[in-house]
Amino acid sequence: MDELIKICPRCGAAEGQQNRGRNRSGTQACKCAICGRRYTPEPMAHAYADEVRQSAIEMFCAGASGRKIGRVLNMSKANVYNWIKKTSRDSEK
Ligand SMILES: [Zn+2]
Description:
By secondary structure, the protein is α+β, with helices and mostly antiparallel strands. It has three helices and five strands. It has helices at 50-61, 66-73, 77-92, and strands at 4-5, 17-22, 28-32, 38-39, 42-43. It binds zinc ion (ZN). Zinc ion binds at residues 8, 10-11, 13, 32, 34-35, 37.
């Protein structure tokens, strides 16, 4: 089963993201409980290399915004935020 990135594209929240069934096209639909935005989560990008992920995290640590990193690396900022969130969670352990 494909993992999906459930991060609100409007407010960036990763908590409170609810599944709202599927769109007519068969893709998963989600709703943000924080701001009420409905959106389609993107598939988890397994295709990205570790180096790309690493450089995204380095740029974030250097003060770049998720939006900017997404533009530089040509990926969605939701994906960037997902990596950052995962990484910061891992480093807390
Ligand atoms: Zn939201």
